[in-house]
């Protein structure tokens, strides 16, 4: 998808761009695959804000995405390519030979009328899903499972892809989009190819109101607050933060502070952290 720029008719239009959705199908989403999506505004089950700066935004419905691809050796036709308001990637509506329909993440190069299939004997073709043990080394993949049968958890956003580096014993070595090297069981499913809509990250929002439509509320700098509200606050005029490094509103270090537990059982599968 390409980027569409506007003429600078107003100050906000000067730096505004949108994606060109001409490649997507002009259809309503499949009603049987929609679910209501209630807004939480960043609050947990106790009603406390755990994610700041969220609230408002346009009303959405959740699209049920098939992250497991468990219909083995049953071919499916791509009916439509659609926009999904809940993720950066586009989605594709597929219909299996037995008549069942489902949504999958649309990989780069997938077109209406193409066929996709999942199973150990599938071709190494964009959109096909296979166990890692049946994928050649060096192949770019996405929608990778962490546990067999658990559904895809890695490389799911627009333009992302992981790479299968090696298979040793019962584990497959992957290079994730973050640069992390990690081992996962070779029975885990993955989809061949790169996720489409890579230009998503080049879009310029342009104005504050467009961000509010996405459900984001304004963010205030800590240095603009009073010292009772933020560790960076206080002082006369524009003052330095007064600490060796930046801190969160609750006083924890904000850069370079490790939050992962050293006793986590899955640490032995991480060969190289993304922080290098």
Q: What does this 3D model show about the protein?
A:
- With 276 residues, this protein is mainly beta.
- The protein has a single domain (3-201, 266-272), classed as OB fold (Dihydrolipoamide Acetyltransferase, E2P), CATH 2.40.50.
- The chain is built from 2 helices and 17 strands.
- The protein has helices at 11-14, 208-213; strands at 3-5, 17-19, 34-36, 61-63, 76-82, 91-96, 101-105, 115-116, 129-131, 140-142, 144-145, 152-154, 162-168, 171-175, 181-185, 189-192, 270-272.
- It has a 7-stranded antiparallel beta sheet with strand order 9-16-10-13-14-15-17, with no helix packed on it.
- A hairpin with an 8-residue loop joins strand 5 and strand 6 (91-96).
- It is globular, with a radius of gyration of 22 Å.
Features of this protein?
OB fold (Dihydrolipoamide Acetyltransferase, E2P), 7-stranded antiparallel β-sheet, 276 residues, 4% helix
């Amino acid at each position: 998808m390409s980027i569409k720029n506007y003429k600078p008719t107003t100050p906000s239009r000067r730096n505004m761009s949108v994606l060109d959705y001409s490649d997507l199908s002009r259809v309503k989403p499949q009603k049987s695959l929609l679910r209501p999506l209630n807004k939480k505004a960043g609050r947990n089950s106790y009603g406390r804000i755990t994610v700041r700066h969220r609230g408002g935004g346009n009303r959405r419905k959740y699209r049920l995405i098939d992250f497991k691809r468990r219909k083995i050796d049953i071919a499916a036709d791509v009916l439509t390519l659609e926009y999904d308001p809940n993720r950066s990637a586009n989605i594709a509506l597929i219909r299996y030979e037995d008549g069942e329909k489902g949504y999958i993440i649309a990989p780069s190069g997938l077109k209406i009328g193409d066929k996709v299939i999942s199973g150990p004997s599938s071709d190494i073709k964009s959109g096909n899903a296979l166990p890692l043990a049946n994928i050649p080394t060096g192949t770019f993949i996405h929608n990778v499972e962490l546990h067999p049968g658990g559904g895809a958890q890695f490389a799911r956003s627009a333009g992302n892809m992981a790479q299968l580096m090696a298979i040793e014993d019962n584990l497959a070595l992957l290079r994730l989009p973050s640069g992390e090297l990690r081992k996962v069981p070779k029975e885990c499913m993955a989809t061949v190819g790169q996720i489409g809509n890579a230009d998503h990250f080049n879009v310029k929002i342009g104005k504050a109101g467009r961000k509010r439509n996405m459900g984001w509320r304004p963010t205030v700098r800590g240095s603009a607050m009073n010292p009772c509200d933020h560790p960076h606050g206080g002082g006369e005029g524009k003052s330095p933060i007064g600490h060796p490094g930046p801190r969160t509103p609750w006083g924890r270090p904000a850069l370079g502070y490790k939050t992962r537990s050293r006793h986590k059982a899955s640490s032995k599968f991480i060969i190289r952290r993304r922080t290098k």
